[in-house]
Amino acid sequence: MILRHFSGTVSSDPKTLSPPDWNNRALFNMIWPLMIEQILAVTMGAVDTAMVSSVGEYAISGVNIVDNINNLLIIAFSALCTGGAVVISQYIGRRDAANARLASRQLVYSVTGVSIVIMAVTVMVRRPLISLIYGNIEDTVMGASSTYLMITSFSYPMLALYNSCAALFRSIGNSKVTMRIALLVNILNIGGNALFILGLKLGVAGAALSTLISRSVAAAVLLSMLVTNRRDPISLAGILKIKIVRPMVHNILNVGIPSGLESSMFQIGRLLTQRIFTTFGTAAIAGNAIASVVNSFSFMPGNAYGMVLLTVVGQCVGAGDYAAVKRNTVKIMKLSYITVFVMNLLIYIFMEPLISIFRLSGEAHDLAKLFLRVHCISMTIGWALSFGLPNALRAAGDARYVMIVASASMWTVRVSAAYLLSYVFGAGPLGVWLAMGGDFIVRGTCYLIRWFGGKWEHQRVIDS
C-alpha cells in the first residue's frame, strides 16, 4: 500500500487518494533512502574514475569530457521527469488517482521518445560534437572520449526509463525502492568495471559497457514493478496500448520545458567554462575532473532534499495547503544547510587523502586541492538556496521564473566571470571555480526574494 507513512490511508476507490500529511516521520522516511541513493550514485562515479585512472590521465580526461557532454544531452528527458513528477504529485495531493495514472504513462512515452532521438543524433555526430565543445584536444583524449560517448549514448533510453520510473516512485513518497535499485546499479557497475577494465583490459570502453549494462538492468526492474502493479496511482499497467493525451503532455511540458531550458543553459555554460581547462593542459583537466568527483559528495544532501521538495511541495500544492508548503519548505531548507555545511567541512578536512585515492601527477594533485578549497566555502554559503529552493518554486508551478534567473546568472556571472578571471585577471583555471561560487550566491539571492514575494502561490500546473 502506498503512502503508508501518511496519517491517512489509501482509499479503496481507485479514483481517490488520502490527503498527504508530511510530518517529521514522513519526511525522515523519504529523506534517508534518498541520501543513501545519492551516496551510491556518487560512489559509482568515483569508482568509475578511480578504475579508469589505472589506464592513464588521458582516460580520466576523456571520461570527464564525455560525462559533461552526457549531462547536457540527458537534460531533456531529465527535465521531463521533473515536469512529470510535479504534475503527478499535484494529482496525488488532490486525491485524483485516475489522472495520476494517466500522467504517469504520458511521462514514460514522452521521456522515452526524446531519449531515442538524442541517442541517434549523438552516435552520428559524436566526434564533431566533442571538437565543437572542447576544440583541439590531444589525440589520445579524443579517442577515449569518442569511444566512451558512443557506448554510453546507447544507454540513454534505458536511463530515461529509469529516471521516469524513479520519479514516479518518488512522487508517492516511496524512495526506498529507488534506493534499492541504486544499490543494485552500484553492484553491477563495480563488478562490470572489475571485469571489463581490470580483467579484460578494455579501458574506457569497459567503463562504458559497465554503465550501459547497469542502467539497462535498473530500468527493466523498475518498469516491471510498475507494469505489474495495478493498484497504485502510478501504475503503468497497459502501457503498451500507447495513447498520447495532449493536454496531459502539455501540463508536463509546462514544467519540463522551462526546467529543461534552464538545465541546458546550465550545462552549456558549464561546458564553455570546462573548455578553459583544456587551454591549460592535461593536468588542469585531470585536476578539475578529480575535484569534481570529490566535491560531488557535498552535493548529496542537497540533491536529496531537492527531490523531497518536489514531492512534498507538489502534493501540498495539489491539496491547496499553502501553509504546509511554507512550513515544510523552511524545515527542509534548514536541514539542507546544516548537512551541506557538515559535508563540506568533512571534505575540507580530509581533502588530501580523498584526492590521493586517484593516481594524479603532482601538478594535477595540487590543482585539485586548490579547486576544492574554493568550492567548499562557496557551496556552504549559497548552494542550498541556488539549487534546493528552486525545486519548491518548480513544484508550485513557478518553473519559468527559475529558468529566467538561472539562465541570466549563468551567462552574466558564471561564464563571463570565468573567462575574465581566468584570462584577463590571470587567475588561470581557478577562475572557473571562483565564478561558480559567485553564481551560487547570485541565483540563490534571487530565488529567496521570489519566495518571500509570494508570487509563486498564484501559479497553476493542473486544472482546478
Secondary structure layout plus pairing:
Layout: H1 24-52, H2 57-73, H3 75-93, H4 97-134, H5 139-153, H6 156-171, H7 176-199, H8 204-228, H9 246-278, H10 282-318, H11 322-349, H12 351-356, H13 362-395, H14 399-424, H15 430-453
Helix pairs in contact: 1-7, 1-10, 2-4, 2-5, 2-9, 2-10, 3-4, 3-6, 3-9, 3-10, 4-5, 4-6, 4-9, 5-8, 6-8, 7-8, 9-14, 10-11, 10-13, 11-13, 13-14, 13-15, 14-15
What does this structure look like?
- The chain is an all-alpha fold and 464 residues long.
- It is 80% helix and 0% strand.
- It has helices spanning 24-52, 57-73, 75-93, 97-134, 139-153, 156-171, 176-199, 204-228, 246-278, 282-318, 322-349, 351-356, 362-395, 399-424, 430-453.
- The longest helix is centred in the first third of the chain and has 38 residues, at 97-134.
- The protein has one domain (24-458).
- α9 (246-278) runs parallel beside α14 (399-424).
- The protein has 15 helices and no strands.
Question: CA-to-CA gap between the ends?
Answer: 27 Å
Mean pLDDT figure = 85
Determine the strand fraction and express it as a percent band. under 5%
Shape: globular
Low-confidence stretches: 1-19
Computed Rg? 21 Å
**What is the makeup of the main sheet?**
none
**How many domains comprise the coordinates?**
1
Derived structural class = mainly alpha
What's the count of strands?
A: 0
Give the fraction of residues assigned to helices: over 70%
Helix count equals 15
H and E order: HHHHHHHHHHHHHHH
